[in-house]
Amino acid sequence: MITDSYPFGSIEQPFVEPEIRAFLENWDVAIVPMGSSRTLNPACSRKVLSQVQVLLPRIPWNSATKARYGLLAAASPMFWQEVRHCSPMQAKTAWAYLSKALWARSAFKDLGLLGSMGRTLFYSFWLNTSALALALLRQDCGVGHVVSRTNGYDLYNHRIPAGRQPFRIQMKNNIDRILFSCQVGRDYFCRTFGPEAMPGQYQLARLGCSDHSAFERDGAGKFTVMSCSSVIPLKRVRLLAEGIALVGRDSIRWIHAGDGPELDEVRAFAERESLDATFLGNVPNDSLMNYYSNTPIDLFATMSSSEGGCPVSVTEALSFSMPILASRAGGGVVEQVDASNGILLGDNPSAREVAGALTSFLEMGRGRLAAMGRSSHKKWDRYFDVRKTTSRVVGLMEGLLEQ
User: Comparing 2-208+387-401 with 223-384, is the CATH topology the same?
Assistant: First the structure.
């Protein structure tokens, strides 16, 4: 499995670990994290299962290798074919992308992965430069099996500054299966980058989580709204804060888990408006699940402006039987939230619209809120039970290995 940084840091942990556990029941597993030396800080390493081997790239990604592989990329016919109809900014992005992919290809060879191509399945958790490196190895060797997920920043054109995801044709032609976390993402990819290059290539494979059991709130205390995300422009945490402020500081207790460059600004806004707000900062996933289990939460809210798949933060809230308030976000949240278990706002709601939705929840009787919570848990059980989602991925990979 190729990751960005896991097992270093905690960002990928809730996505990656459930699948690793399922893989270990069937195969030997090795992880190759391809992040920078900053993200692969041993001090931030998670304890991984003893059966998992972690292989660190031995070729560093530093200024010298960036220059070397940058020259190789600039001399590559594949680069010039890619940028024929690109803007200068898109061409620069494609050059940087190919430079790192060529480095990753060399790093994989240096680790001895090339010799096992025929009996190993390579799985990139992101459709990024690592996936392109695997596609190039597949093209070079003509053997082996390659699978990649695509999740968000690596899926939508608008998620990168240049407005164009590079080298998608080369990836399509050399990756056996591309896994999508939601049907909306699969439809977007097919519409934007063309149909499958081989039968059964595009597969829906949701990300799930464990059951945290259905339970109902007793209605005591202030109405509590939970949110969990990085505090960055994409997640629009400030918008949620503004909506809460319009409802009134005496009506809602707001708890947010996650940090980021906008945290100080959002905290300052909450203080100016005298909101009953608690900012937990970055919380390890295990600790966050324990917090949910021991904290009365009436509503989970997310105002993200874009999601590549079904957000795992919402999936976790479903497993805890929480009603959901969300913006459509152009992604799989539409597969998680409907009138039975919450309120789904438009793509770009105003603070007043957020406040209106919050007021609707406040005015609901406890019976209606409890029914929404039960509906959330049913959605988790039907679509996001980790036992079902990981079984789906294992089945897809077993099918490839049997070919």
Answer: yes
- Band (pLDDT 50/70/90 cuts) for residue 342 is very high
Question: CATH number for the 2-208+387-401 domain, one of 2.40.50.140, 3.40.50.9100, 3.40.50.2000, 3.90.1530.10?
Answer: 3.40.50.2000
pLDDT tens for 259-292 read 999 999 999 999 999 999 999 999 999 999 999 9
Does the global pTM surpass 0.85?
A: yes
Condensed to tens digits (0 to 9), the pLDDT of residues 197-226 reads 999 999 999 999 999 875 567 666 799 999
Model confidence at 120, pLDDT cuts 50, 70, 90, reads confident
CATH architecture group of domain 223-384: 3-Layer(aba) Sandwich (3.40)
Domain spans, the chain:
2-208+387-401, 223-384
Name every residue whose Cβ is closer than 8 Å to that of residue 198 and which is 6 or more positions away in sequence.
Answer: 176
CA distance 54 to 52: 6
- Which range (75-89, 142-156, 175-189) has the least confidence? 142-156
CA separation for the pair 11, 126 (Å, rounded):
13
